Every structure is written in C-alpha cells, then in structure tokens.
Amino acid sequence: RARIVAVVNQKGGVGKTTTTVNLGTALAAAGRRVLIIDSDPQGNASTSFGIDYTQRSDGTYALLLAQGTLPRPRTTMVPDLSILPADSELAGAEIELVTENRREFRLRDGLQALGVNDAYDVILVDCPPSLNLLTLNSLVAADEVFVPLQCEFFALEGLSQLLRTVDRVKARLNQGLTINGIVLTMYDRRNNLSDLVAADARAFFKHLVYDTVIPRNVRVSEAPSHGKPVLLYDYRSPGAQAYLKLAQEFLKRSRAT
Amino acid sequence: RARIVAVVNQKGGVGKTTTTVNLGTALAAAGRRVLIIDSDPQGNASTSFGIDYTQRSDGTYALLLAQGTLPRPRTTMVPDLSILPADSELAGAEIELVTENRREFRLRDGLQALGVNDAYDVILVDCPPSLNLLTLNSLVAADEVFVPLQCEFFALEGLSQLLRTVDRVKARLNQGLTINGIVLTMYDRRNNLSDLVAADARAFFKHLVYDTVIPRNVRVSEAPSHGKPVLLYDYRSPGAQAYLKLAQEFLKRSRAT
Ligand SMILES: Nc1ncnc2c1ncn2[C@@H]1O[C@H](COP(=O)(O)OP(=O)(O)OP(=O)(O)O)[C@@H](O)[C@H]1O
Ligand SMILES: Nc1ncnc2c1ncn2[C@@H]1O[C@H](COP(=O)(O)OP(=O)(O)OP(=O)(O)O)[C@@H](O)[C@H]1O
Ligand SMILES: [Mg+2]
Ligand SMILES: [Mg+2]
Q1: pLDDT tens digits, A142-154
Q2: Cα–Cα nearest to B160, from A53, A128, A25, A65
Q3: B228 to chain A, minimum CA–CA distance in Å?
C-alpha cells in the first residue's frame, strides 16, 4: 500500500516544494516508486521537473473536479518518479470546491479511483502556503503529515496553528492521520537565529524533529531554473547530500513505527 | 486622502510582512501618519510590533465581518504608526466570506466606515500568500499594489499570475487600481542567482522595479523575535538603512505621478 504524505506548512517560503521534489527524488534513488502531486496553483513542483506550461493540463485540477477521464501521472527524468502536475485551472479550484459534494474528500477519492496503491510506494503532496480547501484535501487523503520548518522566527510561530488544524482534521475527517515529522530547512550555521530556532523546535517537538538538517545552499535554489531536482543538478552539493540523508532517515523512521 | 496600498505576492516567504512593517515604520519616520492592516491569519505583522496574542481581538476579522462596533486601530511603539491586528478568528474568515453579501468589498466598506481618510496618510495592507478572498478584499480596497519580489527563481515565475489577477480586479471590481511598483528583496550579492533574477525583473518590468534593493540581512529577520521593526532593533544595519531609502523612493515616486 502506498504511503500518502502531505508536505504542509501554511507559512510561506519554508521549503515545502523544495523538500517534496528533493526528498521524492532521493526516495526514488533509494529504490522506492514515488508519485508527486502538485496541489499548489503556483505549480513550482511541476516547474522543478521541467514540465512546460503547455504540458500541465489534465493534472491535479482534473483529479479534484473529476471531469470525465482520470488524469494520468507523468513520468519525469527521474526513474521511478512520476508527477501529477498543477494545471492552470487549479487557481480556481478553491472557490469551485466550496460548493462541491464531499469537497474535503476529492483528493482521497481521486487517488483511490486512480488506483495508486499498487503502482507506488510513496506519494508526496506539495501543498500551497495556506490552510485552505486544497490543503484540507491533502490532509484528508494523507496517512502522514511532513512539516518543513525554516530556521526563522516566524516559521516557529505558525507551527502551533498548523498542528491544531491537523488535530481537527484527525478528529473529524481522517482518524488515521499521523505526524511523520518536522525537518529543519535553510539552516545557516553563520546565523545565530538558525541555532535558536533549531534548539527551540527540538525542545518543544522532541523526537518529531528529524536529526537530518537541510542547510541553506545556493545550488538548491538554482536547480529549479534548470528544471531539475538538486540531486541531478549537483549531486555532490551540501543540499543534495542532505536530502539523500533525509530520505535514509525517512525510511528508517518508518521501519521503526 | 489616505493612499491605500496592498502589499501582495501569492508566492510565500518573499518579504511581504517584512516590507509592510519596515516600509511603514520608515514612512512614519519621514513624518507620514501610517496605518497597517494585518490581513494575514498568520498575524506576523502583529507579532512584528510585539502585539501579544491576547491583545488581538477586535481586529481585521471584526472589520471584515462587521460585527457590532467597529474595531479601533492600536497605536504601536512607533510614533504615528497604528495597526489593526489579525484576530485569531481571521483564519476562518475566508470560508465565512464566501457566502457574505458584497464579499469582495468588505475591507473597502470597513475602511470607509472607520473614517480612515482623514486620520492617515498611508495605509499598508499585509496580505497572505494566496490569491484568495482576503487578498481580493485588499485589492478591491486598495488604490495601489506594491509587490515584494524575492531574488529567487520561483518568485519571478509567480509574478505573471499575480499581474493577471490585478488586471482582472481592475477590470471588474476596482477601476482605480494601479501598480505602485516592485521591490527586490533578500538580495544576496554573493549569489549569482540574485543578479540573474534582478536583471530579469528589470528587463521585463522596467521602471516598475524600484532602484532601492533590500539586501539579505540577518538583523532584519532577528527583529520580529524582539517585537520591533528593524529600524528600532538596529537602526544602522544594512536592512534598516535600505528600508529608509525605500521610503524615500516611495515618496519621490508618488510625487512624480
Ligand atoms: N536549502 C535551501 N537552500 C537555499 N535555498 C533554498 C533551500 N530550500 C529552499 N530554498 C529556496 O527558498 C525559496 C522557498 O522555498 P520553496 O519555494 O521550496 O518554499 P515553499 O514552502 O514551497 O514556498 P510556498 O510557500 O510559496 O509554496 C525558493 O526560492 C527555494 O529555491
Ligand atoms: N531582507 C531580509 N534579510 C533577511 N531575512 C529576511 C529579509 N526579509 C525577510 N526576511 C525573513 O525571511 C522570512 C520571510 O519573510 P516574510 O515573512 O516577511 O515574507 P512573507 O512574504 O510575508 O511570507 P508569507 O508568504 O508567509 O506571508 C522571514 O523569516 C523574514 O524574517
Ligand atoms: Mg511551494
Ligand atoms: Mg507575511
């Protein structure tokens, strides 16, 4: 059975897309069959795999609004990693879903209809920076929540709001939902603030915080402009190496539970 | 008459809050009477002025959902700068507004009812990272749009989606809406990517891009944890000095038009 993991944080710019793309690629490198769902209307995950704007129709919007035939995930330049891109209509999905039947369950129902359980080992859903219906759909479809936490003051502040929302979803819409963990991103050892935030997060959230820390590394932010995950753009970079370690820890932790 | 400026960009983490707070403070230092509206449920602008969670009721949510008496803006430690904080219920406003009458005009109507035109010279509205009803309300209430653009690849990508939305709002809901300008944020001269993005933005958007560039400066990201704008936290820092220059250019440009 595929594990469905929602990569979520309503704080903007914390590394949700970067983590979805590069953790996904590292898991594929470790032999897992991976599907990425781009459920952010910005479509940054789709861009990260070099998917041209003209190739994005029949994506997540088509799955959520279930129009006619089911969309097919696309293969990418990464072996064993496919993606359901964010179609341009996804920006309108939020308002359209409000009046739809089972509006919170559209992604869960869609993934079931796609029959993804046999085809993939891990499904990562990249969420927009907001606790809206698109994110709600991901939380209802997911088995686990994975939270990138930027080593900045504001990022820590938003976490309790996020965890309260996860609790509410678990209580009302998805009893099986668990928190996989929290990964510290854009850690800059030259900057005191990074250490303070990391220490605070570990003190508060304890074992939920991954040992692996993703450093701020310019090669990571360059990679999307080349349409490639950082593992393909610059394998030896500190960022790529950190995501390989993150994948190892992700797999180790899931064996432990 | 007060100028109402929406600080908008659906890309997350690009410096919307930081720009609202620090441009606002610098404008107040230049003798303008400033009101900041925190219309992001994360409440980061409210935090940046040290407003405790217990002091945030009767804020933007109360203004939008017009319940009983009108909320009063609060004074801050910055002379001539007041803020309408983000109340905790603001997270629910999005869904509640969908079924309200004149749902896109609630902020415009609310600001008129508050009688802000005589009390302030500039009103800055900090928006959430999404083109949702809260942001739409800001675009309908605003005279001008001010766009922080992070010097990163993804940030440039989202800009055309934002400008299309502004055009649509102008055509249908707010004929007077104009684009004040675009300010480059978190510019890091050690990083090629910053130069590439800056060059691209200037080539494409020409005079809309401010001459003043906000450098990446750790003092800027430390200031909110002390509940102060960076001008009060570390006046001589490169970040604070850049925001003072930005305010000068902001005022100069408005005289020119
Ligand atoms: N480890 C890193 N080192 C350097 N830059 C990074 C790193 N991780 C992410 N970035 C850059 O920081 C910016 C924000 O990251 P990203 O877009 O992945 O965040 P996000 O949470 O998905 O944003 P949004 O909230 O808009 O969806 C991007 O420009 C990205 O390239
Ligand atoms: N010039 C700067 N130098 C260093 N750090 C900065 C600078 N500007 C902003 N930051 C930091 O970058 C992060 C993102 O900035 P900010 O929160 O203002 O962006 P935002 O667009 O308001 O985010 P959101 O989309 O979540 O509302 C914050 O942690 C902030 O402190
Ligand atoms: Mg993203
Ligand atoms: Mg903000």
Answers
A1: 999 999 999 999 9
A2: A53
A3: 13
